[in-house]
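Pasting as-is:
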Amino acid sequence: MMNEYVLVLVIGALSIQSLALIYVLIRMIGVTDRALARAQAPEAVGSTPPSTALALGKAAVAPLKPSPAPVCTKPIEVVDQGLVNFIKKEEGFQAKAYWDYKQYSIGYGTKATSATEVITEAEAEARLTVEVDKAYKLVQKIIPTGTPTGIIQALTDLTYNAGPGWEDHSLGTAVKAAKWDTVKADILQYNHAGGVVNAGLTARREAEVSWFDKPL
C-alpha cells in the first residue's frame, strides 16, 4: 500500500514539472512570434534609429570642411588720391597673377601671393592703397621738412613702382640734402628692367620729375 502511495506522489510531481516546462516553452514561442511579427511589419521599416555601430561608423568619418573664403585686404584711406589714380592708370588691372621681372604681380602691380592667384578689382584697389601708404611713409622718413608736394608724389610713385632701397644710395643722399636737380637726374636713372632700359619705365620716370614743378 505504501509503495503505491509513493508512486502516485512521484507521478504527480513529474506531471507538475512537465506542465511547468510546457508553459515556459509556450511563453518562449509566443515572444519569438511577436518579435518576428514586429520585424516584418511595414511600419517598422525606417522607423527605428540606426544601430549604435552604424552611428559610430558615421561619426568616425569626419565631414569635409569647406576651404576658407579669401580674406579681403582692408583698404587704407590714401593721402593722395591723385597719385592713386595715376598708378591705377599706369599699371592697369590684372585679375590673374603674372610674371613681373622679379616677382609675380597682380591687380595694380602689387605682389601676388602665388603664381596662380586670382583677385577681384576691389581687392586689387585695397592692396594698392596699402602699398601706396607704405611707400608714402617711407618717403616721409627721408624728405626734409617743407618738401614740395610734387617731389613727395614722385618719390612715392618711384618707391611703389621700383621698390625701396633708393634711400640708401645717391638719390637718398640728394633728397636729404634737398638737392632737387640732382634728385631729378637720379630718378631718371631708375628706368631699367632686367638690366635693360625699358621704354615704359623711362616714360614713368619722366612723368615723375615733371611733378616737381606741376604736382598731380
